Amino acid sequence: MSTPTHETAPEVVTHFVSLKHPWRIAGIVLVLILALLLVITVATNERFQWDVVVGYLFNPRILAGLGMTIFLTFIAMVIGLALGVVIAVMRTSASRTLRWSSSFYVWFFRGTPVLVQLVFWYNLGYLFPELTFGIPFLEPFVTVDTNSVITPLLAAILGLGLNEGAYLAEIIRAGILSVSTGQREAATSIGMTRYQAFRRIILPQAMRVIIPPTGNETIGMLKSTSLVSVIALSDLMYSAQSIYSRTFEVIPLLLTASIWYLVLTSLLSIGQAQIETHFGRGALAEAGVSGRGMSHLLRRGGKAATR
Amino acid sequence: MIEATSQSVDVSDVHKRYHHNEVLKGVSFHVPANTVTSVLGPSGSGKSTLLRSINRLIPIDSGLIRVGDNIIGYEERGGKYYELSDRDLCRQRQRIGMVFQNFNLFPHKTVLANLVEGPQVVLGRPKRETEEEARELLASVGLAAKADEYPGQLSGGQQQRVAIARALAMKPELILFDEPTSALDPELVGEVLDVMRRLAEDSSTTMIVVTHEIAFARDVSDQVVFMADGVVEASGPAREVLDPERSPRIKSFLMRSTR
Description:
Chain A: Keywords: Amino-acid transport, Cell membrane, Membrane, Transmembrane, Transmembrane helix, Transport. The complex is a heterodimer. Chain A is 73% helix and 3% strand. Chain A is mostly helical. Chain A has one domain: MetI-like (MetI-like fold), CATH 1.10.3720.10. In chain A, α10 runs antiparallel to α12. The longest helix of chain A has 32 residues. Chain B is of the alpha/beta class. Helices cover 36% and strands 26% of the residues of chain B. In chain B, strands 8-9-10-3-11-12 form a 6-stranded mixed sheet, sandwiched between helices. In chain B, strands 2-1-4-5 form a 4-stranded antiparallel sheet, covered by helices on one side. In chain B, strands 6-7 form a two-stranded antiparallel ribbon. In chain B, α3 packs across α4 and α4 packs across α5. The two termini of chain B are 35 Å apart. Classes of the chains: A mainly alpha, B alpha/beta. At the A-B interface, α9, α10 and α13 of A face α2, β8 and α3 of B.
């Protein structure tokens, strides 16, 4: 240093001695030992019957069950989203009647187990033996036997969809509330109708808040569909059960089902990350990432970046 | 800058209360077409509420607001005033632009998309034409190069200039400015005021500006409305209203602002 106030040149430090983390090392060793034990057990315990697991992976009944699981997840989420938007908008309404009735819906469907709801819909015939369609107090147009209408499939769709609607309503409401009132004012000031403002300005911005928990809900729903096996609907879980009840290969078939569930949840996670990047537009710009850098960042890990 | 017809604004005896707090206690003034009016006054005097009621972002309790021949928010039939539907109200708002203190640009859309949103979605005008106009407008506020960026990438002053361009893209007959420079860093205030000054000189649009910029009010406006405590304390040409001798309130306001 050339400044005269320093009498001696500062000492050049060449090496630091890092702090030792003995507990961390102990932890690593423990985890490695446990992992090794797990691998050895899985590989040597013949009762896993990996050949049977693999053999059933593409079994027609398993694949049919897989198809039903995917279908149920999809339809329940679609119904849940549609209901969720309506209930969320009702909950932010100026009308007290609409607010309270939607709150009641959420309270009821979130407050009872989905398993109970499924069994309830399945047994609706006990409550209403006949379903009638027509104008109240007049001769009905159509009367049908409830048990012929409420098939296991319909009971499953109703049970899962109505339940999901309650959860998604809360998620969507949080999303709508996360958009500043200034955005609605700005949309209104350029002459947009309420619907246009909601559809083009509010909802796309709310999506950033809505997508991550909705992704989790979809993954949760995929697994919840396994509950429909109690109302004898042949989803993935029910198919596995019906095979092992004959062959007694319980563990291998549960593993087969688990592998498929893992495959599906992994695919959903990837899809979720991509949708998140799509709706993260503009938010990244605000974080100070510009132009080219942004698209690069988007491709690498939108999930982390959008939060 | 733009070619559009302009409208006069007539505010008469407007009242507005929030619960027990009466914010507007009978406000009246007239803004001739093709003029600039600055609304000044201490904070809490009801300026922003008044401005927001002119395009009915806030519904008023009583009184009438006329923009041109239209009564804002109502339709008169046989001596009765019927509240307008959302759709009809939107038709009135299409012709009234607004610029906000916090810009309120749409953060998920590019600058260009912010400008064409209104003309395309609300007015249903073609893409090519509206984009051309939008680029011209951006050039006129000195931001031609920023068309494809997102609002979050711009400085506050740039965002507010985009917001002004977004309002102009609808070819409004009246533009409302709600403290357009209050959220800006001091060094960015000038660029926004410049754009507004040019707008006042070059275009025929009627402007109502709620502001704390006394110099701007003095230099640019045809009329100054001084509000205090929910009423118009004084209105008229700037040099008459912004005279410390006129009232003690105006005097203390001027003293606080120049410090």
